[in-house]
Design a protein that fits this description.
Number of strands: 19
CATH class of the largest domain: Alpha Beta
Helix content: 25-40%
Largest sheet: 6 strands, parallel
Strand content: 15-25%
CATH topology of the largest domain: Rossmann fold
Structural class: alpha/beta
Number of helices: 14
Number of domains: 3
Length: about 400
């Protein structure tokens, strides 16, 4: 320790060695310009026995120390001298105090009246609002904070509980978030299917985030089959997948290209607009299905099965289809409500919708990111540490193999 430098004592508890938490803490302190002194360490002697470490962390300035502590809390560190969480009133509607605590996607607790209280609604990049009278705390998006709400600030009285690395050797344990186009995809997909069966067997819920490439690549039948067989409880997408799925159902094309022959169809470039217009005339996707206008495809199966579906729009949408939510804040709220209780998220060929969904998911949700672009897979898989698998591949071979394993 350097004399006269600000310092704090922290403790770490759990499987901090085999999950690499301890070396990540050391690296973070040094990378951010701090120093540390390990005061004690106790290593668990059995597979179910946790380890414990205590150290003093220092930095050249109080601001640098605060930045280090904030980062270490994301790794599960707890201040030894921690008192109750500090709060400040929100200065106006939709704005936070300058030193507000920005959440991670880890399960979090705050200390209120000397008691550690679980924060309701785990989500990253939002604020924590405290109801001290009822010993409750919940996450709240910035836009939904009202003037005067007691918002948690600083880093006192806050602890994030990291996801422990599982000791059994499933695909999420040994593949983690590393991304490669050379992974043994068939074996990985087999393990993903096994996990999906286990989730459904215990009554769990599975989310699929689907991009229009699923339709373009001819994989719609596989996704439709998974929905029909009950493996998709929640479906997220945009105007594009709905429009091209209906186009495929009505005309056998996607983007005007025949899904049977792979060749452009005369006048096919108008098909997606005709498909959107058909749904707008019917009033909704459900109305079109109930009228017998749409009789197959992803949208048909989702509506017939009763799958919870959220279609969020964008500025480039044609139409759009009436079911598409064009108010982005309203779409966020619908997605936030729909992901509650989800145990696995499978994100396929939809960068923006997948990233938006990743922001809403707790770290405990098993995440599968599939895209032909490695950068997209990396960005998504990195949000889940031990809970994420990334596959660089096209939508069609992934869904074909997954359906073959599950059906």
């Amino acid at each position: 320790m350097i004399p006269n430098h600000p310092s704090e004592e922290i403790s770490l508890r759990g499987h901090i060695i085999d999950s690499w938490t301890l070396p990540r803490v050391f690296d973070a302190i040094m990378d951010l310009g701090g120093t540390f002194e390990v005061q004690s360490i106790e290593v668990g002697r059995h597979r179910d026995e946790p380890s414990h470490a205590r150290m003093r962390v220092s930095a050249p300035t109080a601001e640098a120390l605060a930045a280090i502590i904030t980062h270490l809390q994301e790794l599960g560190a707890e201040l030894v001298s921690s008192g109750d969480a500090e709060t400040r009133p929100a200065p106006k509607d939709g704005a936070l105090p300058p030193d507000f605590y920005s959440t991670t996607n880890l399960r979090t607790e705050v200390r209120i009246g000397g008691l550690w209280i679980p924060v309701e609604g785990t989500e990253m990049d939002v604020a924590i609002v405290v109801d001290a009278a009822n010993n409750r705390a919940c996450t709240r998006p910035m836009i939904d904070v009202r003037r005067g709400d007691p918002v948690v600030v600083g880093h006192t009285g806050i602890r994030a509980i990291p996801i422990e690395r599982r000791r059994d050797t499933d695909v999420f344990s040994f593949m983690n978030s590393a991304v490669s186009s050379e992974k043994p995809k068939k074996l990985v997909i087999h393990e993903i299917a096994r996990e999906m069966r286990a989730i459904k067997a215990r009554g769990g819920r599975i989310l699929f985030v689907a991009g229009p490439a699923i339709i373009h690549s001819g994989a719609a039948d596989y996704l439709a089959r998974l929905i029909r067989d009950g493996y998709v409880d929640v479906l997220f997408g945009g105007n594009a997948i709905a429009a091209h799925d209906v186009e495929a159902a009505l005309y056998g094309t996607s983007l005007g290209v025949s899904l049977e022959s792979g060749t452009p169809v005369e006048g096919g470039h108008r098909h997606h607009m005709r498909a959107i217009n058909t749904i707008r005339l019917a009033g909704s996707l459900r109305a079109a299905v109930e009228a017998g206008t749409v009789t197959r495809g992803v949208m048909y199966e989702a509506i017939t099965r009763g799958t919870r579906m959220v279609l969020a729009g964008s500025v480039r949408d044609d139409g759009p289809i009436p079911d598409v939510i064009t108010d982005m804040l309203a779409a966020q709220r619908e997605m936030r409500a729909a992901v509650q209780g989800v145990e696995m998220a499978v994100m396929i060929a939809s960068m923006l919708h997948s990233i938006a969904t990743g922001n809403l998911l707790p770290a405990s949700v098993r995440t599968v990111a599939v895209d032909i672009n490695p950068a997209v897979v990396t960005k998504l898989a990195d949000r889940g540490s031990w809970q994420a698998v990334g596959l660089v591949t096209d939508a069609e071979p992934f869904l074909r193999e997954l359906a073959a394993q599950l059906v």
